[in-house]
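Predict the 3D structure for this chain.
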Amino acid sequence: MPDLWRDHLVDDVLGWWMTHGPDPDHGGVLTCWDNAGTTLVSTDKYTWSQGRWIWLMARVAAKADLLGVDPGRYLDHARSTAVFVRDHALLPDGSTAYVTDRTGTPKEPVAGQGISVSVFADLFVALGFAGLAKHDPEWAEPAESILLSAAARIADGTFRSEPYPVPNGRGSFALPMILTGVGEQVHRATGSARSLEIVREAVAAIESTFVHGDEVVEMPPYDDSLLGRHRAPGHTLEALWFLHHARDLAPGTLAADTDRLCDLAEHACRLDWDDEHGGLLRFVDSDSDSDSDRDSDRDSGSEGGGSGGRQPAGRRTDDPYEALVAGTWDTKLWWPHAEALYTTALLGRAGGRAELDRWHERLRDYTLKTFPAGPGEEWIQIRRRDGSPLDEVVALPVKDPFHIARSLLLLVELEKENA
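Done. Predicted structure below.
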């Protein structure tokens, strides 16, 4: 459906962001819009989103012919935002300020806790610089420098991970996942041996520590606690396309095993699907799916998707992350649906999996009737279980210009490749 995805991307999603996002006075992008996209609630600039914007603008510029847009406009925004981040948010140690004011002055997100509090913000800047390096090669070196700094802090345990600190004694799937995705992009821009090594180490960590049977454990160890039992299938589905994109960089591993990636994707869809209202839940319990349920659904041709979508359960330890899981598990968020659309389309074709093709159709139908806000608008990104809008903050107090546009762009590219 190339015209559908392209038109929705260019006319609605990018159309809204290019009207409301760019800051012509100071550079960068203004993202602190309410969920409806009608009110700018703050002019603060979260570095996390600035880095993502750089990547998106650079990628759109690179695919301008495919999209039918003027590349210069997008590339100008990528460059001006990169300069804003470099001049104001990039710190001498290779980390970044988590947030700045509109003019670029760094701020402490929490008084007394420092300005560099998230390795994820650092890595999204590396991603943005790597994307821009495909147009302007001078950005390749800072992209790799930030990647190396972040990877070193993750390796020695000195990293910080706001807005969600990793619970004590737990692993975090998000760490090797983002190193795979960002490392792959940095390597494409630099061809360096060290970025390749980071990708391979991250893939090995995913395969050895986080894949448990047909599912991905979000916060190992795998035990009877809520943190051990809960799953975030949206994370899994996003990571699977990262792995597939890195398949040539890690031969002989999970990344290059398309059948295994397809198995994991099918399981994640079954595990997370809400049979009552449709769509993907934010968190689910690991016991939400079984082989007998799966086989029954296949035999019956069920459109419900399985017996997934159960509330996370398990022993509690009063960690703050447990409260997040328990309190928001049944919300419907924009980003898992956007990521799942691309992953199911990509792996369904790569693996010849009819079940993933069916999941893609089901996800497409639910997503397009639930999230888009209308012609010329972006998405209502946060919704209740029944699909009604929910005015709450997820991760950062922003309307993020990334998952939706990236997924739609990748879908357009995929359709072009398979035309």
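Confidence is low (pLDDT under 50) at residues 289-304.
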